Each structure stands twice: as structure tokens, then as C-alpha cells.
Amino acid sequence: MNVRGKTGSVAVIIVTHNSERFIYKAWESLEKQTKKADKIVIVDSGSKDKQYLAPFGQKENGRLILAGDDIGFCKGNNIGYQALAPEYDYILLLNPDAFLFPDFIEKAVSFMEEESNKKCGAVSGTLLGYDIDQDKPTGRYDSTGIFRSLWGSYGDRGQGKRVGESSLNGVEEVPAICGALMFLRAEALAGLGQKREIFDESFFMYKEDIDLSFRLRRKGWSILFNPKLSAYHCRGWNPDRSKMPRQFRLCSAVNEMRINWRMRSPLGVAYSSCKYLFVKMLDL
């Protein structure tokens, strides 16, 4: 689709990895948008059986890229971004297990086009939990922005709380937003560096959304949370971290340590280092 000269054009990037349980519902939510995406790029990162992806490569506004091995969330999004023509005004990063409310894109574009939001580099909205097994909302929040604790850990505000328990007081600037749902201004991404990349690929996965948010902020862009933008996300809230695969916990701890180092936070580096050592030595 030629978007040259079109105002408010939107491209969507979805990175899949054995995502057959979710991707059809995610695509359905895109098809139901009151403002359609101009392009949807799916990048597969090492799915065992890729047959479930075949229909998406045949869609009129879709493109399917089979990247081969498990290249990770960061590189997958970068490949999708590099496959896009540079004319798009906005890039929506969407997890395959995230399902948009029908007016999400229309509201997001309208919000970003407002004169008062011209320095907004990225916006996200209210992510609500969704149980894919029961095919219904959990009634709990998934994320309303990412915040840093005093000691240097990062987490999604409101995660696991029942809807209505948290007070959402309109649009606000937040430290970072969740990578499952990032509506990005293309102009802001273009100013991040000479490489046409969204994420630092050395992160592979976990905390890359925090790093991107901080890099945008350092370039003078604001990161905003708008509660009127809504989507569902199928992430759970298991309080037992030991049930999370060890290599994932190690990756998360290392990436958090790197972010605290970049933020020149001695306390944060010390905390993240301890977390890494506990996982490495004691498998906690």
C-alpha cells in the first residue's frame, strides 16, 4: 500500500514464536479497527511449526517474514522495522498475545496528532489481563506504565490488581511503557541513531522496552500513558518466580543491571547484581 502523502499512516509489527494460540485473535482485533493499519508485518522468530502463519502472508495489507531460528524479540522487531518503507508516520509494536480494543489505532493517531503532543515519542494505554484458556478478560490490570523502585527494580504499575483498584488520572508522563503495546512516532525512532533499529539487540528480550523508553527520553521525547487507549494482554501473574525458566530470569536480571548502569545508579546496579547472583548461584 502506498502511503506517501497520507497523514497518520500506521504500520504494525508483530513478532511471533509458537504463537498459534494467540495470533488469530490479535489479527482479528486489527481487522476490527475503526481506523485500519496500512501495513502489518509479522516476523516469526523460530516457531516449530510455521504452518499457522501461512494465511497472514496472503493478506492484502500483510507481510510475513520467516526469520529462521529464535532470534529474539528485539531483533525480530528490528527486522520488521527495516522491512517497512520509511513513509509511515507511526509504528505500533504489538505482541501476538495482545488484542486491541476496536478504536485503539484511531484514538492513538488522533492523540499523537494533537499539537500539545507533538513531542510525544511513544504512547501506550491500559493493558488489561486476558485468559486465553477461558477466552475472557481476567478482570485485572496487566500494565499502566513501567516504574522504577527506590532500589532500582522495574515493574508494571498495577499488574495483577483488580480493575478499578488503581486510580488512573488521565494522560501522564511515565518512565517507560510495556513493549507488548507501544505506539511509536516514526520521527522519534529515526532520531535514535544511524542504524535503522528500534531495540538494542543485545537485550534479546526483557527490559528492552525500558531501554527504548529511556533512549527516547534522552533525545527529548516524552513517554506518555493514556488510559483511554485500551488492549488486552494474555500475560499471567505467577507470584512464584522459580517457575519462570532460569535462563529467562538470568536474562532479565542482566538486562536490568545494564539499564541501571546506563542510568548511573550505583544502588540499582548493586541490587540487580545481587538478583543476578541469587539466580546464578542459588537458582532463586
Automatic annotation (TrEMBL):
Gene3D superfamilies membership: Spore Coat Polysaccharide Biosynthesis Protein SpsA, Chain A (3.90.550.10)
One matching Pfam family: Glycos_transf_2
Superkingdom per UniProt: Bacteria
Keyword Transferase: yes
InterPro entries xrefs: Glyco_trans_2-like, Nucleotide-diphossugar_trans
Domain Glycosyltransferase 2-like stretches: 12-116
UniProt GO molecular function: transferase activity
Keywords of this entry: Transferase
Record-given protein name: Glycosyl transferase
